[in-house]
């Protein structure tokens, strides 16, 4: 245990205790190094004012338990969590469901779904495919690009040098 975090042997955070930390909004967990492996996050007894955003817990794929103040509901609700316990002062979100298996949102046929936190997913392109909705096949034509750009730049530079040389004042 270091401060309010529990670490495993690999120095990854497995639990973070933010109880009574005075937070009025959910912290940006993407800025905390090694947090993607967190299994437990406790935000109880915080005066959270903002409404839940779908991006509040992005990247927390392994999150098993999330403890929230009563006014802050579990992100995604029953579609995302196996069990939700509402106690008099807090909410417990327990065991994430596989969002890709349970969602009506689908990736394209050239990509596969990967969970990316409570109620979140990523569409990962198959090998060789890139771009928006994985519609492009192959790699960027670097040789063709450089083969056309470098000679054109050299010729344009020489032309500009000789045409603009007359404007240079000599003493």
UniProtKB/TrEMBL annotation:
Please, which domain of life does this record's source organism belong to?
Eukaryota
Keyword Transmembrane listed? The answer is yes
For this chain, the annotated S-S bridges are: 125-134
Entry's transmembrane regions: 143-162
Keyword terms, alphabetized: Disulfide bond, EGF-like domain, Membrane, Transmembrane, Transmembrane helix
Which parts of the sequence belong to the EGF-like domain?
96-135
Q: Which InterPro entries match?
A: ATRAID (IPR042350), EGF (IPR000742), LRR_dom_sf (IPR032675)
- What name does UniProt use for this protein? EGF-like domain-containing protein
